[in-house]
Specification:
mainly alpha
């Protein structure tokens, strides 16, 4: 009789075989799951009634409020991809860093980080920066391996910086709040940016001819004009990041609500970028943003500024006007949306963004449905216990497990997209990680850092495909592939840093959830133990 110790490895191997053939992942998952489900029923590993859980699991996917944030953040990124924000940021920061060697490299990395924090999609960042910065780097003599590598790498920062779609998916698969994943990812994302900038500095020292400074003729702005243009792109972007992530991290909004606010903010940014707002719409925008920030201020004060004199009373005062401020913010929002409806060109832009969002969301849902069929059957034949036992006996304890898992995910990333890894592999690895005492948020952020490489390493990195698609013909594919390797090494170095320094992820979680008990007083009334009459013993 065939047991789970035989059927589980066969099922996993069958999935790998389907993927190597090149069949679509969503349908491969569903086909393998149903096929081995019929085999398991035939050999008596579980009854046919076990499969009745499948429709309920599919409806559960559609009703999952965490996953509902994905289309909102995707739409937000698609709008900002088309509004010209990236062009202005790259132009202004490129001129700001232009006088130093590698200045365009620094500008690309910083703009990639900003776009990552407000778009959440790698394709938007890589395509936008490739179209804008690559011709400029070619014009001024940058080495093509360095230029293509820094553009592709800066786009993959989007995977790690909140509101990354990967973090949302990992939070759902690991059963942790999205706010915890966002809080835990900030430290590694900042270190990643510093590592990339350090590499640009290193290249500017050892290979200065690869990264020349911009000539004086290319620096058309200076002084206050340059500063004003930089602020015009950076300040609204930071305001949108603060609005979306601040409300989620402080518990004022769910990820779905934060994503919805992000879409509205992206529309406002798009209108401001195109300079098509009337003075009335502009005034409504800033009043609405100010009202929203004031609504969040009491919670911010309560989180970390209690020790500053007068701040607590200021928070209480503002909190007393919370309802009025919310009404004002919503009224301004309606005025802004009414203004947007009159801008015909911007409706066209939103329609195109909505179409691309629909395609991405449909892909995610199909992969999810296929993965839930596969996971249901795999767990029905005790495949999860097989995986857990196999990983729990690895030498080295937690460190050995983490090294093996990251090597395994790194190899899988040559063939699978990050969505596929998150939906197929993470549910199989998570029980073993929890059994070994590994913090789920630390584990999720670590995998997110690792899965950045799925966009970068040859020959299947999607960021390299995006770049190849928009790069001029004179740039050879070999230059794109060789240029990616140093940045993949930096990403793997970041994996080692997160393994060696777990507090980089876990310390912000304690600050996020540590309650303020300074004003809590618990009084226990004294008990009255005196009795009015003595108790007489019962007669025997």
């Amino acid at each position: 009789m065939i047991g789970h110790e035989v059927l589980a490895p066969l099922m996993f191997g069958g999935l790998v075989l389907f993927m190597l053939v090149g069949y679509p992942v969503a349908f491969s998952l569903a086909a393998v799951g149903l096929f081995f489900g019929l085999i398991a029923i035939a050999v008596g590993l579980f009854d046919f009634s076990f499969m009745q859980a499948l429709p309920e699991r599919v409806f559960g996917i559609m009703a999952n409020e965490v996953l509902l944030a994905i289309p909102f953040f995707t739409l937000m990124g698609a709008i900002l991809e088309r509004c010209g924000l990236a062009e202005d940021l790259l132009d202004s920061l490129g001129q700001l860093f232009g006088p130093v060697r590698g200045g365009l490299g620094y500008a690309v990395i910083l703009v990639g980080a900003i776009l990552g924090a407000i778009t959440g999609t790698v394709a938007a960042s890589v395509i936008a920066m490739g179209l804008i910065s690559l011709p400029i780097m070619m014009r001024y003599g940058y080495d093509m391996r360095f230029a293509t590598g820094v553009i592709a790498a800066s786009g993959t920062i989007t995977q790690l910086i909140p509101p990354s779609l990967v973090l949302i998916v990992l939070a759902d698969q690991l059963g942790r709040p999205v706010s915890e994943m966002y809080a835990g990812a900030w430290g590694p994302s900042l270190i990643q940016i510093l590592l990339f900038c350090a590499y640009v500095l290193f290249i500017s020292i050892v290979r200065p001819q690869w990264v020349p400074a911009l000539p004086l003729s290319a620096r058309t702005l200076s002084g206050w004009q340059l500063i004003k243009k930089c602020l015009r792109g950076i300040v609204p972007s930071i305001a949108l990041i603060f609005l979306v992530l601040g409300t989620i991290l402080l518990g004022l909004a769910t990820p779905t609500e934060g994503g919805a606010m992000g879409v509205v903010g992206a529309v406002v940014l798009a209108v401001l970028q195109r300079q098509e707002f009337s003075s009335r719409g502009l005034l409504a925008t800033w009043v609405g943003v100010t009202a929203t920030v004031l609504v969040m201020l009491p919670e911010l004060i309560a989180q970390g500024t209690q020790s500053i004199p007068g701040m607590a009373s200021l928070g209480v005062f503002i909190d007393s006007f919370r309802v009025e401020l919310l009404v004002l913010a919503y009224a301004c929002l309606l005025l802004v949306l009414a203004e947007v409806l009159w801008i015909a060109e911007l409706r066209k832009m939103i329609q195109a963004a909505a179409r691309s969002t629909m395609l991405i969301t449909s892909m995610v849902i199909y992969i999810l449905i296929g993965s839930t069929i596969f996971t249901l059957v795999f767990r029905g034949i005790d495949g999860d216990l097989w995986i857990e036992h196999m990983l729990s006996v690895l030498p080295g304890g937690q460190v050995g497990f983490l090294v093996f898992v990251n090597a395994f995910v790194f190899v899988l990333a040559f063939f699978l997209d990050f969505f596929e890894i998150a939906f197929i592999i993470v549910p199989l690895l998570a029980p073993a990680a929890i059994k070994l005492g590994i913090d789920p948020v630390w584990f999720g952020v670590l995998l997110c850092v690792n899965m950045q490489t799925s966009f970068m390493h040859p020959p299947f990195g999607f960021a390299l495909f995006y770049l190849r698609g928009i790069a001029p013909k004179e740039i050879k594919s070999s230059a794109i592939y060789w240029g990616a390797i140093p940045w993949v090494m930096l990403q793997l170095l970041m994996v080692g840093i997160v393994i060696a320094w777990p507090e980089l992820v876990t310390k912000p979680l304690g600050q996020l959830h540590t309650p303020d008990t300074s004003g809590v007083q618990i009084e226990i009334p004294a008990a009255d133990w005196t009795l009015s009459e003595p108790v007489k013993p019962e007669s025997q």
